[in-house]
Fold these 2 entries.
Entry 1:
Amino acid sequence: MAQWQYANPVRLSFGRGAFARAAAAVGRRRYCLVTYDKPAMFRELAARLATAAGPAAATVEIAAANPDFHALARACRRYAEASPPPEVIVAIGGGSVLDAAKVLAAAGGDFERVRRHLESPNGADLPRPIPIVAVPTTAGTGSEVTGWATVWDTDAKKKYSLAHPLLYPEHAIVDPDLTLAAPRALTVSTGLDALSHALESIWNVNANPVSTALAIAAALGALDCLPRLVRNLGDADLREAMARASTLAGLAFSNTRTALAHSLSYHLTLHHGVPHGIACSFSLPAVMRAVIGCDPACDAALAAIFGPDLGAGADRLAAFLEDLGVSTRARDHGVDEADWSGLIDRALAGERGRNFIGKRAALG
C-alpha cells in the first residue's frame, strides 16, 4: 500500500447552539471581531459574544463578498488601530469573512506584508499569525478548517491563495442555526461549493484514504440534502445536515486542496461576476466524465456516491445542477464556446489544475 498522511489541527465544535462556546474559545484574551457590516443578525451575534466575553478590542466589518486588495488593506488599517493589539481573532460570517480574518492574522496590521508575500515568486516572510476562532454562518466554504485564504486582486484580475501552516483556525465553531437566515441563492451557491470541495478532493493527486472517506460522506450528504433544503429553507434539521456535509468536505480538501473545477472558476468570478459556488460547480459533470477510468481508487470513490455506472452518474449530477437552476453550459455563465477550450488549458496549467488526475482529451 502506498504511503499517505492526513493532518488537521483545528479543534471543532459542531451542533445547534454551539455558538455559545465562542466566549470560552476566546477565554481572557483580547479579541478582534471580524464580521459583516450587515445585516442585523451579525450585530446580534456580536452583542451576544460581547456579553459573554467582554467587548471586542477592535471590530473589522467586511462590506462585500470576495474582498479585494483595497478592502483588505482598509481592514488591516482598522485592525492596527487597536492598542494594545488583539491576541485572537473571532471571525463570524461566510467564507469571505473567514478568509479576511486569515489575512488580518497574517498581516499583523500591515497588508503590504501579505501583498509582498502573495506577489513574490518565493513568498516573502510573514509574521507569526495570531490565532483565529472561526464561526461560519454559511454551509459551504470550509474555510473554518483549512489553512489558506482566497485573496482577490480585482485590478489585475488575479486570484491568490494565502497559505500558512499556522492559518488553520485554532477553533471552529459550526452552529447550523447560524445558517438559517441564508437566502435561497446563497444556500445553493455555498452548498454547491461544498459539493465541489468533496468531489475535487477525490479526483486529486493528493487524495488519501481519510480525505476520500470524508469526501464520500460529504458528497452523499450534499446531494441528498440540498434539493430538499432549497424547498424548505427554515428546516433546522436540513440546515444541520448541510452544515455537516460542508464540514466534512472542508476536512477532506483541507489536505488535498481543490482541482480543475475550481481552477476554471476563478476566471468566471473575476471576469464575469459568477458567484464562487456556481462558478466552481457548473463544470463538475464534464470534469467527472474526464476522470472516469483514470484511477481505480477514484472510480471506486465515485461509485460509492453515484453507483457503478459512472457515466450515468455524471448525467445525474448534471440533472441535479439543472434542477437547482444551475446551467452546466459555459456559455450560460458568460464564456463563449470558442474561448472554453483555451480556458481549460489555462486552468489545467494553474496550481489547482495540476492537482487534477483526469484526461484533457475528454474535456473538449
Note: The chain has a mean pLDDT of 95.
Entry 2:
Amino acid sequence: MADFSLFISSALLALALGALLGLERERSGSVKLGLRTFALVSFLGFLLSFLASSLLGFSSILLIGIGFISVVVLSVLYYYFRAMKDKSATGITTALVVPFTYLLGVLIGMQYRAEAVTSAIAVALLLVERQKVHAAVKTVTISEIVDGLIFAIIAFVVYPLLP
C-alpha cells in the first residue's frame, strides 16, 4: 500500500508542477498551450520514468529517451506551425518549457521530488517576472558582465582548487 500512496502523491505532484507552468503560459495569452497541456506533459514524464524504474538496464533509459524525443519533436512542430501562421511570433520560450516540463515529471518519477519542485518554482518565477528580467538585462553593462565572469571563475574554479 505504501507504493500506491507514493505513486498517487508523485502523480499529483507531477500534475501540479506541470499545471503551475501551464497556468503561467496560458496567462501570458500569446500561446495556445496551457494548464492542461503542461500538466499532461509532466504526467507523461512521470509515468514513463515510473514505468522505467521497473525495467532493468538500457530499456529503462530508452523509454525515457523516446518520450523526451517525442516531446521535443512535438514542441518543435508547435513552434514551426505557430511561426508559419504568425510571422511576428518569434518567441521560443514555450517551445523550450514544454520539454523542461517533461523532465520535471521524469525527476518526480525518479524520486527527485525536491529538485523538481525547486526547478519548477525557479522557472515559474523566471517566466512570471518576464518584464523585470528584460528590464534588468537592458541595464547591465559589459564591465558588470566581465566582473561576474571573474567572480564565477574565482568561486567555481580557483576556490575549489585551493587547499
Note: The CA atoms of residues 88 and 114 lie 38 Å apart.
